Amino acid sequence: MGSRSTVERGTPGQAAYGLRPAAVPFPGADSLSDLDCLSAAFAVIGVPYGSPYRMELVHSGAADAPRLFRERAAARFGAHAERWDFDLEGTLFGTTGLAMADVGDMTGDPRDLAGNAAAAVAAMRVIVERGAVPVVLGGDDSVPILCARAFAAEEPVINVLHVDAHIDFRDEVDGIRDGYSSPIRRMSEMPWVGQIVQVGMRGTGSARPEDVEAALAAGNTIVPAARVHRDGIGVVTEAMRSDLPWFVSLDVDGLDPTIAPGTSCPLPGGLDFREASALFTAVGRDFEFAGIDVVEHFPGLDVGGTTSLTLSRLLTVLIGHAARRRALR
Hints:
Distance between the termini: 23 Å
Largest sheet: 10 strands, mixed
Helix content: 25-40%
CATH architecture: 3-Layer(aba) Sandwich
Order of helices and strands: HEEEHEHEHEHEHEHHEHEH
CATH superfamily: Ureohydrolase domain
Radius of gyration: 18 Å
């Protein structure tokens, strides 16, 4: 794909934000070495490190996901951005004239949790302020907290669509408030986050009865996976009532392990590919799209690259439809 935003690697702007260029850019994206030169409509960024509950988990299997996901996706789809996509009825960006940049991965000392968090928020904030849509490759499920902080404002500016097997609404675990059991709790406290819709919940996890009650009391809409299987994806889109742009937070375990086995907590009964693809199509086509994070992807637990294949298709469908909607503004 021709570059509208690529500059030479090694420019000072890259290091200034703690970013390292991706060895292999995400399919359909141009490598961008200076974040201050970002002009693309979509920006891929890897955020490997979050806030683990134990320091020995700081470099979990999810920390390798940004790099390995790109490599596996590129090996399968690297030459396909300009080919006809039957799910989009055209090429990735069609005739929109839009482009996607890959700004690389956040670096730093994995044990410097506060420093890593501040740097990641600052880099993503630049993406948002330059009018681009962040496509964030995590990282564990604490990374969404950082993504949401990049949109900081005094009033609601985004909604959140949360796809996960769990509600992630613990206030704290072992005294840690920004861990992977708490991202939606933290988002619910942010004045710039409007409506929160959660889908894919099933089985058991870290949530206690009081956590579910707190999520509902905060105004969250919870759509269990079983209801989607029974009534269709319309139960989710009908619940998405706010006109604010929607940020999608995708925990891989929200998907069924038959299509996404590469995660630390797989649970049977998640969204299947048709349901997830229909949901992502609707979000990109029918709603203003603010961005997405993909977290809890453990490439080392994947089976034959199935998870990378699934995630690549879902991101392509979402970005392709969102680009077409954005071009009509």
